[in-house]
Amino acid sequence: MAGSFYLLWDSDKLVSKIGAPATGAGDATSIQGIPVDSTPPTDGQELVYDSGLGKYIPKTPSVSSPTIYTCPSGAAVRDAVYCSAANTVALANAGNTAKAPCFGLIATKPTATTCTIQRLGPLAGFSGLTVGAKMWLDETDGQIIDTAPSGSNRVVQEIGAAVAADTVELLVDPANFTLRA
Fold this sequence. Notes:
The protein is mostly beta strands. 0% of the residues lie in helices and 45% in strands. Strands 7-11-10-8-9 form a 5-stranded antiparallel sheet, with no helix packed on it. The protein is elongated and about 55 Å long.
């Protein structure tokens, strides 16, 4: 069994990422007492709990094309953005409630005025981050910082955590923020 796969409690909540054994064959028959289907997963598959069958089964995750959003021409990869209109994003700012909450960070820019957004998982290309530091939406358009905003009328939104000097593990939830009074 080469590659790696994931264990899921249900179809949309990741429990843990595990790697396949380097040598030998695995023979897990249950996870916390819940049966695992005897069909071995192939590379890229996930073990997903199927409530109808009452067991974990191998499943190839559905992959859809990323949504392409319209964005400002000055926006760059790794900039924090908010939804400014239908399928349109602009640079997010914790100091301006009209420009928050953060929707995600720009992952790619296929053209000068289009982008894809990433909200979950590692995003590399930063520099000088302090490993382990929480990252927050900044009061500068499009930026994130390792200190939460503290002034009044500020949006306080955790974006993720630095997992390397150049990488943030994103966990952007547009519904999870606080407005400082």
